TrEMBL record:
Pathway it works in: Amino-acid biosynthesis; L-leucine biosynthesis; L-leucine from 3-methyl-2-oxobutanoate: step 1/4
Protein name per its UniProtKB record: 2-isopropylmalate synthase
Organism for this UniProt entry: Xiamenia xianingshaonis
UniProt cross-references to InterPro entries, sorted A to Z: 2-IPM_HCS-like, 2-isopropylmalate_synth_dimer, AIPM/Hcit_synth_CS, Aldolase_TIM, LeuA/HCS_post-cat, LeuA_allosteric_dom_sf, LeuA_bact_synth, PYR_CT
GO annotation terms (biological process): L-leucine biosynthetic process
Annotated Pyruvate carboxyltransferase domain residues: 5-268
Recorded name of the encoding gene: leuA
Amino acid sequence: MTRKINIFDTTLRDGEQSPGASMNTEEKLVVARQLLRLNVDVIEAGFPISSPGDFESVRRISELAGDKATVCALTRAVEKDIDSAADALKYAKRPRIHTGIGVSPSHMRDKLRITEDECVERAIKCVKYAKKFVEDVQFYAEDAGRSDFDFLVRVIQAVVDAGATVVNIPDTTGYSLPEDFGRRIKYLMDNVNGIENVTVSVHCHNDLGMATALSLAGVRNGATQVECTINGLGERAGNTAMEEVVMGLRMHGEDLDGHTDINTREFLKASRLVSSITGMNVQANKAIVGANAFAHSSGIHQDGVLKKRDTYEIIDPADVGVGASQIVLTARSGHAALKHRLEELGYEMDGEELDRVYEAFLNLADKKKEVYDEDLESLVNEQERNDETAAFVLESVQISCGFPLKPTATVTLRNDADQSQTACEWGTGPVDAVYKACNKIMQVDNELSEFSVQSVTRGIDALGEVTVRVTAPDGEVYTGRGSDGDIIVSSAKAYINAINRLLNDKRQHRR
Ligand code: KIV
Ligand code: ZN
């Protein structure tokens, strides 16, 4: 039997740090339910001191997970961070505090302005402090990938002696080469006394496109926990993609001496869910979950696959959930069928909320005849975006455009004081006109930095999903999404959603 490799998911923490990918608590709970279905070992649910929203998410996910997964909260090596994490984890059955400090020359000298001795002292202090609240304390040695080998041994020895149960060795900047990173892990395994009694974790970033290779090199050399995210979401170029590292282990488990307990058939669903909630689209040629991951277009390949699948396919698509659900709902499907399907997709709802989604579903089913899982996800996410915390809601939008007209839009929005306002503007195109009219009403300083349209399913009657990103004057990026059968309406909804998120965030931080 190979070693069990723990999967530590950080989609809700590091993943969420990726610009424009922020999620609210309800959205995080939907993702957390899917993580439980995947059977991850640890969910890093947030960084509680960073915002009231993060605190609340860690608290609610702790309640949700029960004893099905360890729930972890991030802190700096600062007592007030650890107090906040311990408080947020109060209801967790399996709580873990993840604390740590930068250990590379660059982090110590330029960021923290501390000496090596001070760094070791602070590392010991934060682990001991966290141990007062929980037994399970994970220490991260930030930027370990660029640290001095012997100094890293010194820090890790100190925190193991101080009671850390897990030591996390991140390649924070994605700088390393896989062989070198593997050698670093081996050096720790060979030189830290008692390392066999703790879990060694790897946390690799994808700046050189090697996060998965780095993580597997870590496993080969002794690590038994891998930190990763769905779709590889994360700071800058992202983190290790869970689907890649798990399938890598599935393919090469004997060689790497490792297996995971992940339910890989949930991967595609998880990928779509995270992409739909965060607005971070998955590239078509992305390994495992990209739209083309199992598509064969050349004649030679098609011929081979038809003769025997494994001539060109190393993974059975069904093993990662491709083609798993072909359940199609129609206008004749009742409340119960919709509720059941939504539950399978990770959405739990009842009462008025379910009634609202059912109404939207019937509207869509009338137009579209067959409603697929992707349509349902899009519908539910659209409903959730229009919650009562929204500062503005779209009441109506009308455009006039075409050759040789000047594109003109009339938009009516309702604000959270229940007042309706209408504005009319013209623009270089219909979407530009709609956004100008919205701006006239909302008056929120921002710059539109990205706009994209995708169809949710195939066919002319498909829902059109628009993703926009806006940048606030302080440089913060906010993503908005909108979906509708009419892409002008989707465009208006997406823009209003991005502005609502911006306003919500600024209000939260003002508190
Ligand atoms: O990349 C990193 O070093 C991190 C730590 C906070 C674990 O995300
Ligand atoms: Zn990270």
